Amino acid sequence: MTVPVIELRDIKKSFGPVDVLKGVDLKAYAGKVTALVGDNGAGKSTLIKGLSGVQPYDSGTVLFEGKEVHVHDPRQAGALGIEVVYQDLALCENLDIVQNMFLGREETDQGTLDESNMELQATKALQSLSVRTVKSVRQKVSSLSGGQRQTVAIARSVLRNAKLVILDEPTAALGVAQTEQVLNLVRRLADSGVAVIIISHNLVDVFKVCDDIAVLYLGRMVAQIETKKTNQADVVGYITGTKTYGGK
Amino acid sequence: MSSPTPPTELMPNLEPQAISSGHEGGLRDQVNAYFSRLKNGEMGALPAVGALLVLGVLFASLSPFFLTEINFANLFVQAAQLTTLAVALVFVILLAEIDLSAGVTAGVAMDVFYLTTNAGIGWIPALIIALVVGAAIGYILGFFVAKVGVPSFVITLAFFLGLQGVALILLGDGGLFRVEVPEVKAIMNSNIPVAGGWILLAVMVAVSAALGLYDRARRTRKGLVNRPITLLIAKTGVLAIIGGVIVYILNLNRSQGINPIAGVPIVIPIVVAIIFIGTFVLDRTTFGRHLYAVGGNPEAARRAGIKVNRIRITAFIITSTLAVIAGLFHVSRIGVVEAAAGRTIVLSGVAAAVVGGVSLFGGRGRLVHAAIGAMVISIIDNGLGLLGLSAGISFVVTGTVLALAATVDAVSRKRSGGSVMRS
């Protein structure tokens, strides 16, 4: 078996008396889409916040490409190649697509912004994902639909050569066609060799696009299974706690 | 990201798809694109330019004095202070903040200038001290807004009141204090030699065209499409013509006495340089990009790793420092400092920025918009004054124009989708 891009071992996190994560294990592999599912309060967000450095874990081991790392702030996560695409997209509507994709990491040439270089790279990143819904890279984000905005946010992680991309509910606010487009995009992102973790409540989406499904239940990882080897009814059972994963 | 990804079963037929950059197509496509942007509510300074033309024609037809050479020069000189203040305020308005104390900050800094020059210090070091005073006040304002979290409206209102007191303490009760610095007096009251005006205009047009050509060369080097060159030629031409007309008229003899008065007032190239450098910083530097980002969505900027607080504090420092230059122009024109200086003009400065198309919601607007807005307000003051109408009417008209501009801002923001889908 190949070395996972990210491996979590026995992760624990508590807020005061409340134990949110009670020893969680998780693996995500390059080229694979791993779904992180679980009911509200299962600890999904807490798990992700630890990975992105926003809220470090109390204890446990984080292995990045087999090596132990300590992620204490978002910059460290970014330096490793971990990118999080948040549910509320974190784009600036008054800026255009190129400007948003390079926000905070602008390329300069002799002290001034190198617009042509940024435009070229942004276009290439979008093309590498076969994005066809965006007309012009110089469109303002305010003129984009929800799906197009997701597209820009995901393409931004490509631009940053991310090795692990975490998507928080990428399709929650989208219509049918746009959901389809974003799922296609996620698939292509993984096919290009990136490890992808998707948080989602939508099991239809999960089964459509994910290779692995990891189920959190009250702070414990109750199952991490290949999508092929399970079905929706079982996963719902794991999520709600009415079934336990037999193969564990 | 370089290798093309294999097709998946979800999206079977993928051929590479060209994504445009808005630079494609001929002149006609570019013009169409401009109109479609207008329709989407990105009107920029267009309403203000329209207002400027309408008001110009109106006053020209109502007052025979409006189009005289001397009034033309007066208009520009009178507008210089307001323009500079409005440009200064744009930096904080882009962050959806406000600085109500900018006017009195300038007043206090110029009081310090008066006291230091009176104490025998040269005018250049004294001016530097005044600018540092402005920058320091800006830093304190920015600190309260960014680090402490006091709303800018409240903290700058507090400074608006407090600094008036400081001005009184510095100057003592009442009275006007003459500033005896010929160089300062010259800014608003002396002119560049006739040839100098033309040379400066030529430099300005050349720099502007060179920047345009430089951008095109960079794009070509990267293999990107350029807009038709006719567009750049047209832009440069319009700049040259407008500038040429202004310089030509200002170079005519406008004296009503024996000694001829002609030439571009010294203040005008200073204001143009401020706008030019400021625009360069906003459009072409990382700081400028981050300023717009923080104004558009502070949370997104923070997550992108931008030091939001540093940007906020810097914006307040720039506003206060540039405001001091506006104060310098004021002192140059009236020749005195007084404790009450700068109390009323700051609201006109905000009005000018908004009239010109700078959005109070943050993230949208350019320095030249504020300058055009300042011209609109100045032309109202000037024209109504010439018609012998009372100051009351002038305020009513200015207020109406501002209300109109704010309405245009709110409506266009709605139309461009600014309020929808906001996370």
Automatic annotation (TrEMBL), chain A:
Residues 6-243 form the ABC transporter domain. GO terms for molecular function: ATP binding; ATP hydrolysis activity. Keywords: ATP-binding, Nucleotide-binding. Transmembrane segments: none annotated. SMART domains: AAA. The keyword ATP-binding applies. InterPro entries: AAA+_ATPase (IPR003593), ABC_carbohydrate_import_ATPase (IPR050107), ABC_transporter-like_ATP-bd (IPR003439), P-loop_NTPase (IPR027417). The keyword GTP-binding does not apply. This is Unannotated protein. It comes from freshwater metagenome.
From TrEMBL, chain B:
One of its GO terms (molecular function) is transmembrane transporter activity. Keywords: Cell inner membrane, Cell membrane, Membrane, Sugar transport, Transmembrane, Transmembrane helix, Transport. It is found in: Cell membrane. One of its GO terms (cellular component) is plasma membrane. It holds the Pfam family BPD_transp_2. It is a multi-pass membrane protein. InterPro entries: ABC_transp_permease. The keyword Transmembrane helix applies. The chain crosses the membrane at residues 45-67, 79-100, 120-146, 153-172, 192-217, 229-250, 262-282, 311-329, 341-361, 393-412. PANTHER family: ABC TRANSPORTER PERMEASE PROTEIN YPHD-RELATED-RELATED, XYLOSE TRANSPORT SYSTEM PERMEASE PROTEIN XYLH. This is Unannotated protein. It comes from freshwater metagenome.
